[in-house]
Amino acid sequence: MRLLVASVLALASGGFVPALAADCPVERAVYVETELSTRLQFEPASSENSPVIHRFTMQASKGEAEGNVFYDLEIERPVSTILRDCPEGDVTGADLAACTVWKGIIYGVNQAGEVDLLPSEGETAPDQLLLPGFGPAVAASSFGQTLEGMPWDVFSYKECAPKG
Questions:
Q1: How far apart are the first and last CA of the chain?
Q2: Of 3, 29, 33, 65, whose CB count within 10 A is highest?
Q3: How far apart are CA 61 and CA 76, in angstroms?
Q4: pTM, entire model
Q5: How far apart are CA 148 and CA 84, in angstroms?
Q6: How far apart are CA 67 and CA 143, in angstroms?
Q7: Is beta strand 154-160 parallel, antiparallel or unpaired with respect to 77-83?
Q8: How far apart, in whole angstroms, are the C-alpha atoms of residue 38 and residue 61?
Q9: Which residues sit opposite 160 in a β-bridge?
Q10: Residue 87, pLDDT score
Q11: What's the pLDDT score for residue 86?
Q12: Which of 49, 63, 59, 72 is nearest to 118 (CA)?
């Protein structure tokens, strides 16, 4: 199974061998996918008392969206949401659904093709990220309708953002 995952990820990245993330903590990692060059740039979570365990920005050719990762105790997985142009103040479930670009679990993949949950802040960034269903969800969202195609579900490590 690990070999299959590694083969699929190598094909998905067009044979591109990504930079190694070995010296970068996940909260400073920058990832890019190959179809539309969509970027995910992680940053430190805002505070220790927040339920948010990761923050990141999704950057595409036609704009940006904000991403957060929360640990869901019920399913014992870190769940991410990417939101764009959400209303301020009291919002309904319908309001949130309308501004949700993607919701799901982000998996980290190492060079050997081993898949694991997204590591905690301070831990080494994975070499690739797998966001199942990301492309179709983005394409179906109001944000995706501004893009010139559908992004892929695999992001490869690009660089480590400077501190600060």
A1: 39
A2: 29
A3: 34
A4: 0.82
A5: 18
A6: 14
A7: unpaired
A8: 7
A9: 29
A10: 86
A11: 87
A12: 72
**Cα 12 from Cα 155, distance rounded (Å):** 9
Helix/strand/coil (H/E/C) assignment for every residue in the chain = CHHHHHHHHHHHCCCCCCCCCCCCEHHHEEEECCCCCCEEEEECCCCCCCCEEEEEEEEECCEEEEEEEEEECCCCEEEEEEECCCCCCCCCHHHHHHHEEEEEECEEECCCCCEEECCCCCCECCCEEECCCHHHHHHHCCCHHHCCCCCCCEEEEEEECCCC
For the chain, list residues with pLDDT below 50.
1-13, 15-18
Tokens found for residue 141: 């969202």
Task: Tell the residue number behind the tokens 């430190």, with chain if given.
Answer: 44
Q: Distance between CA atoms of 89 and 111, rounded to whole angstroms?
A: 43
Q: How far apart are CA 11 and CA 130, in angstroms?
A: 14
Q: Which two tokens stand for residue 38?
A: 């969509």
Name the amino acid, one letter, at 52.
V
